[in-house]
Batch of 3 targets.
Target 1
Amino acid sequence: MEREQVYNFAAGPSVMPEPALRTAAAELLNYHGSGMSVMEMSHRGALFQEIHDSAKAKLKALMEVPDTHEILLLQGGATAQFAAIPMNLIEDGTADYAVTGNFSNKAAKEAEKYGRVHIAASTAGTGFDRIPGQSELSFSDGAKYFYYCANNTVYGTEWQYVPEAGTPMVCDMSSDILSRYVDVSKYGLIYAGAQKNMAPAGLTVVIIDKALAGRELPYTPQIMSYRTMIENDSLLNTPPCWCIYMLSLTLDWVTAQGGVKAMEELRRERAGIVYDFLDNSRLFKAHAQADSRSYMNVTFRTGDDGLDAEFIKGASERGLLNLKGHKLAGGMRASLYNAMPVEGAKALVEYMKEFEAGHHV
């Protein structure tokens, strides 16, 4: 089965590795001679248990997850974790939040329903175009945890350092997980919606220090209790079976490419191609400050809404899809996740050059 060659720059759901898609297509009707699709089999059966266990083992190996931490494969999207995190960790205390974009802002507001929230830093004043430095972070005494979002898909910024908080760190890595090395031992909790770098929408990965489980507020629903989900190996209820299967196939692909180290090299190459052009362009300008730029989501604009719309339309006609920026940021956004080939970044820049030349800037 062939498909038209396009480059999908969507922010999520997003491009997936073609080998993973082809394997899924080949196994769609008959998984490993079982006569069943993964979408049909019981989540309590041995076949799915093998898929589930394999996905966890592969992720543990690729991310070097220490034995102190548990991998949970959950539902509800990353947004559900905005509530689950404070319900499980804030107890009767305060949590520190760095607000560097749309989703960290939403997470902080959600946490206020369950406890006290201290804003450790905010870059709203400059339009979320940068990441605060360590010296700008203001921590509260005895905070239960410090929360930040590693990569901001809307505004195209990314933390280029690991902050030091002196308290358990909680990090939303939805859009850059598996794209660079992470010392998991430094974090109390990492979570990521799967639909950017791992699998189709419907799965959320949580990696939690097991010592933090068991502190949930008394009204925390079972399905949102980390302790309960650890005790039930994420199988308290029917999990997103197909998504977990696709996660396993994607992890096979990452491993075959050379692992996280190779993904990090590729992300620098892809983003570098686009940023190098932007830095010398007479028409297009990057949104994020240079030291805070995302390797995953390159945000840019012409400064003219009409030209932006013309550019997006022309790009789509050339098979460069989903470049329209988020409604909060405007302009354009090129999402360069792990499965985006380097050729996609090159094709985008070639069109940008053509567009610029045609507008006599």
Target 2
Amino acid sequence: MSESLIVFKAIHNEAEKQTLLQRLVNSGETIVLRDKFDRSITLRTMGVNDKLQIKCHPPESTAMNTEDSARFTASFSIKGEKYLFETHPVINETNITLTVLNLFHLQKRKNYRYVIPADYSAEFVVTYLNQSVCSHTCRLLDLSTEGCAVEIPQTEANLHLEDLVEAEIFLGDRDPIVVQGLIKNIRVKNDETLVLGVEFNHMANASEGKIVASLTDLQRDIYFRRTG
């Protein structure tokens, strides 16, 4: 059974944000604050005001530097539902103030195909075609734990339905993800380009986990880059 993908859904309504944050405080759930070096601290909430600022008890100790203008990410859960937001933490002797910026609901979706933004570096490099060594670099268009769509120049390879491909997926500067699958769909995009639909027929658990983790990180990069 394939893992669910994590899909970021932005929460824009101010009243909805306020209600959600009040539920967080009332629930007694903690907030995990994380910096760009992936260091984290756990915070206990004290209250929230109408400016979407959460007051938290100060941690006993932290190696984080909150003096600069770098943004931090913070996450919390309410009844199994996970949320993520950006913040500039302000620390004093009695509390930490987290102003909530760009709040997202992290939703789990089965068989969801995430469309890769056109300006994001994403490649599908075919290393074996019907068990013969090759090297064909394709543009990755969308991705799920079940399969993907890719673009390839028509002159690049002689391809047919049900061809077996082994490939490495490169998302940004992350380590490659090894996949294997069958070509289930071929359509002509234009005079020079084909779009292939690949259905994964064998996926190591590690690769499936990497797809889920990489797409979660990718969305975080993209959304926070747009709003930064």
Target 3
Amino acid sequence: MQYVVSLFSDRDLYDEYKIPSEHITNSHWRFYYRMLEDMIDKMNINKIDEMNVDLYVQGRNDKFQKFYKNCGGYDTIQEAIDIIETANIGTYYHEVLRYSAIWKLYKAGFEVENNWEDIESLTYEELTNYYEGMLDEIFSNIDMGQDKVFDIKSDVRTMIKRADEGVLRGLPVASRALNAKTNGMALGNITMVGGMSGVGKTFFTLNQLLPSVIKEGEKILIMCNEEDMGKWQQEIVTWVINNKFEKHFLKSRFYQGDFSNDEKRLLKKSVEWLEEHIEDGLINFVNFSMYSMDKAIRLIRKYATQFDTKYFIIDTLKLDNDIGSTVTENSWLQLQQNMVKLYNVIKPSENNLHVWVTYQLNKTMKNRYLDQSALGMSKNVADVVSTLILLRDVLESEKGAKGISVKDKHTIEKLSEDRQYMIAFLDKNRQGSTHEQVVWEVDKGRNVMKDKGYARISQDY
């Protein structure tokens, strides 16, 4: 009751605290909430008062009006508004989610009544962890999570055999040059890709992971808190047209519309290619309305155990911004702790997964040579990652005859002043070396990326 009435009392709270209506277990208050949903989301009514509510109700059928009257009409809302405190909306919100979860657990056959003493005082997050822990215990090996002491020679032959079979190699990235340095995305590890805003972290991620996921048939879950699914679909379609069909199509055309007949044919062909080459459930996507590492971890556990997914993307890693989270002087410590929590879930001795994380660097680039200091105050977030890739565009001064030299297997060449390039610094690389940088020729508008080779940028002192 308090949750729904708070939204009627202060319409602005709806945008921040709205939830699917099925979470509201009381039928009368669910009815009022759906009224509010309809008025705001469908009818764009921004002022929620008695007059607008009455006008809305008068426009509905007799059955609706009768039920509204049986619920007490607007008097029910007004009487409740006089006694609730909208400042407590966070508490009301979590209580709705908590009771909804308890009710669904009960209907699913969980022993709610027998465990009531244990769960009655738990918050929503604590309740989530309680039952996730119970499920983990049921489905995990009995020894999982227990620390054991082994003789160092134990199963060394098995280790060699697994290495020979390529088990330790990990899913390769698309770039041969980068793959030669990092040896793929080994399970039980985290890859972090850092870059300033606009450098192309999502562009880089898409170009490196999408081809391998499709080729190897390896499931992946993309978790975003900035870009919606439509944006990722545009990126993928653009990639298909320019890389698989080798045609010219700029992703900016999605924002301009009015496609030509040739463009429509290309777009249709790209969708058909996706439907043919990407199996259902191979690439899954979620866009967090409010992000927290706990939510990401819950999804990782779910997709790992229920759908046998081993590879995950978090784009972009940020401070928690869900309900109840606040930015304080200790926020960077929280971010570091979140990365430790993430690693504890995906490490080899637990679920043995790989997570690819993108992260925004400082807003200004102080040095040409990128290292962990570019992470700023949050540099310790990289403590648990196995591979730290730091990206930037190649500078104009690094092109041409006086610019950097780039070598591949057979040649050493300078970079053309007429083309665009991206360079990656491997500040941390547990599966390979870090002394050389990887260079690509890029066309970010077309989602095209080609290996150029390796360079050596001098460190700034």
